[in-house]
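Researcher: Following up on the earlier apo prediction. This time include the ligand. It's uracil, with the SMILES given after the sequence.
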Amino acid sequence: METLAVDHPLVAHKLTVLRDVDTDSPTFRRLADELVTLLAYEATRDVRVAETTVRTPLVETGGVQLASPKPLVVPILRAGLGMLDGMTRLLPTAEVGFLGMIRDEGSLQAQTYATRLPEDLSGRQCYVLDPMLATGGTLAAAIRLLLDRGATDVTALCLLAAPEGLRYMEEAFADTGTPVRVVTAAIDARLNEQGFILPGLGDAGDRLYGVV
Ligand SMILES: O=P(O)(O)OC[C@H]1O[C@H](OP(=O)(O)OP(=O)(O)O)[C@H](O)[C@@H]1O
Ligand SMILES: O=c1cc[nH]c(=O)[nH]1
Ligand SMILES: [Mg+2]
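Model: Understood. Below is the ligand-bound prediction.
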C-alpha cells in the first residue's frame, strides 16, 4: 500500500482552520470541500486516460480523455458525503456509488448499513472518500468490498490519518496484488483511548452535519 501526505501550504492552512474548535459548521463544510479538491489533484495523478483528437479553431491535434470504464467515486456515509462535491468538481463524469458505515464507539468495529454500488467493478478505478482514517477498520472494510467486486485499483482520500490506521491498512493490503493508495492532508500523532485522532479535528460527521 502507498501513502501520500500532501505537502502544500494551502492544504496546511485550510487544515489548521478545520481543526479549530471554534470553526462553525458552514465554514467546516466549505473547507472540507476545498481541501478535497486539492487532494483530488494528487489522488488522480494515475487516473486512466485514452488518446483522442481535438479540433482547435486552427488545426486538429492530439489530446486525452478519461478512459472507459469511468472512475467510480465512493463516499462513506455520513462524513464522506462532505467530500463528494469537492471530488466530482475535478471528476465530473465519474460515477458515484455509496457505502453507509458506522463505527461502534465502544468496540470500534465498523458496520455497514447501506451499500449502493455496481455489482461488477472489473476494470474500475475507485476513489473512496472518508475524512478520518482512525483505526482503519472502516476504510479497510470498504476497500475489501470494492476489491471483492473486482476493482483494479483503489485510492482513498482522507483529510486526516492516524499512524495506527495506516499500519493496519498496510498489513491488510500487503499482498492483495491490487494497488491501494491513501492520500491524506496530514498524518497525525496517534489515537486516544476512545479511538479518536490526536490532535485531530474531533468527530468529522458531527462537525459537518450536527450531532445525532
Ligand atoms: O478508522 P476507524 O476507526 O474505522 O474510524 C473512522 C470512521 O469513523 C467515522 O465515521 P463514523 O462511524 O463516526 O460515522 P459518521 O460518518 O456517520 O459520523 C469516520 O468518518 C470514519 O468512517
Ligand atoms: O478522530 C476521529 C476518529 C473517528 N471518527 C472521527 O470522526 N474522528
Ligand atoms: Mg462520526
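Model: The pocket of uracil (ligand 2) is lined by residues 132, 134, 196-197, 200, 203-205 (CB under 6 Å).
Researcher: Noted. I'll compare it with the apo version next.
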